[in-house]
Each structure stands twice: as structure tokens, then as C-alpha cells.
Write a structure and sequence with these properties.
Endonuclease III, domain 1; Endonuclease Iii, domain 2; mainly alpha
Length: 252
């Protein structure tokens, strides 16, 4: 009885053909790379409005997490928060602000005592010096009051554009966009901006976010970045805007 055997060359060809079919994991990786290589479709004005409508519905009155009692203590808290966590700043300032909640009281407290209050915060020596210097300047040039103007705020020691934007927004209700690492990351992931610098992202957000959401927008983006769209493992399954977001590497 004759037995039909597949020749070695035919078998080799069939196996090589089968081997060319990628494994599921490899196929997924290729699809992900291809998706990243394709330009992302820009968010429409309607989609951007919907993003912030959802943020507003979920959290109508978002608040910053730095504790303060007036514009001056807010200014000091934001200056101290550079390269530090809000929780760490709050722990240091609770006792401090009970003793010094005005520029005059801060100068009376003095730089040495101020350092003792904030020594748990990174760069506390430089920050203490800046707080004393800005307090002196507030008294000398602004009658002890925190100015509402960005240019004036940026003349104060230790105050840059981001700090000025936070103070203008939180203390005075101005629709500014303070771009920190969370806002920069989230804005790029969602598709609100392709900017690589805080100033570029700020300009994009001011141009694209509907005015009715302007006052609270940066708070929503900060909180979203801090608790949902985290740097290392974003919580995409619970994200309010998952279906709109342009981020190609959504987690399952």
C-alpha cells in the first residue's frame, strides 16, 4: 500500500508560511506602533467643550490643595510648593500661618524662625529667603497687598509665571492657566496641545478651552493628572473622557 508523505521541501514551505503569522502579542505591538506613527486626529471644538462639560458635572467647584487663608498666604504657599508636594507644604504651613499670615507678621517672625517652620520642605533655605524678600517688596511697593497683575507678581522674588497664574486664578478668579507637570502631561495625552513647553501649552489651552470653563480649567486638569491620568499608569478604565481622549496607550 502506498503512503503519501509530504516532501521535506513542501513541509518546510508550509511551516515557514505559518511562522510568518505573528503571535497575538506581536500583532498588538505592531498595531500600537502603527497607531503612534499616524498623526492623531485633532480634537474638535465640540469635543473639547464636552471634555470640560464632563469635568464640570463631576466636580463643579474644584479647589487647589494648598491650604491658605488669604492672597498672601496663598502666594507664600505656592512659592514654597516648587519641587515639593502640596501635602508637604500644608504640613509645614499650618503652624506658620497661625503666626504669620501677612507680610508684616512674616518680617516680624524673621528668616531664621521661618526656616525652622519650613525645614521639612526641599530648598527651604532659598525659599525662606525669597519669602522674606517678597514680603519686604510687598510692603515697600504694594502697600502690603498682593497685586492682581501678572507682570507685577513676577517682579517678586521666587515668583515665576506659573506661580503668578495660580495666584491670579485662585485668589482673584482670573481665567489663567497655570501649567505644571500634570497639566503639561494631560494636555498632550488628551490632545488639547502638542506643546513641549509650559508656555506653549498655556497658549493652546487659552485658545481652545471655552471661556465659561476658563476659571476652573487648570484645576480640573491638575486633579485629573494627579488622580486619574497619572504619569506611570493612567487609570483609563475609570476616566470620564476615555472615549474622547487621543492617548494611544490607554490602559485596560
Amino acid at each position: 500500500m502506498g503512503i503519501s508523505l509530504t516532501s521535506g521541501s513542501a513541509l518546510s514551505k508550509r511551516l515557514s508560511s505559518e511562522d510568518r503569522s505573528p503571535a497575538p502579542a506581536v500583532a498588538r505591538a505592531r498595531a500600537t506602533r502603527a497607531a503612534k506613527a499616524r498623526p492623531r486626529r485633532a480634537l474638535s471644538s465640540a469635543e473639547i467643550a464636552e471634555i470640560f462639560r464632563r469635568f464640570a458635572a463631576a466636580n463643579p467647584e474644584p479647589k487647589g490643595e494648598l491650604e491658605h487663608t488669604n492672597p498672601y498666604t496663598l502666594l507664600v504657599a505656592v512659592v514654597l510648593s516648587a519641587q515639593a508636594t502640596d501635602a508637604g507644604v500644608n504640613k509645614a504651613t499650618r503652624a506658620l500661618f497661625q503666626k504669620a499670615d501677612t507680610p508684616q507678621k512674616m518680617l516680624a517672625l524673621g528668616e531664621e524662625a521661618l526656616r525652622e517652620h519650613i525645614k521639612s520642605i526641599g530648598l527651604y533655605r532659598a525659599k525662606a529667603k525669597n519669602v522674606i524678600l517678597l514680603s519686604e517688596k510687598l510692603i515697600r511697593e504694594f502697600g502690603g497687598a498682593v497685586p492682581r497683575d501678572r507682570d507685577a507678581l513676577e517682579t517678586l522674588p521666587g515668583v515665576g509665571r506659573k506661580t503668578a497664574n495660580v495666584v491670579m486664578n485662585v485668589a482673584f478668579g482670573e481665567p489663567t492657566m497655570a501649567v505644571d507637570t500634570h497639566v503639561l502631561r494631560v494636555s498632550n495625552r488628551i490632545g488639547l496641545s502638542n506643546g513641549k513647553t509650559p508656555l506653549q501649552v498655556e497658549a493652546d489651552l487659552l485658545a481652545k478651552i471655552p471661556p465659561e470653563y476658563g476659571v476652573h480649567a487648570h484645576h480640573w486638569l491638575i486633579l485629573h493628572g494627579r488622580y486619574v491620568c497619572k504619569a506611570h499608569r493612567p487609570a483609563c478604565p475609570v476616566c470620564l473622557i476615555r472615549d474622547i481622549c487621543r492617548f494611544p496607550d490607554k490602559t485596560l
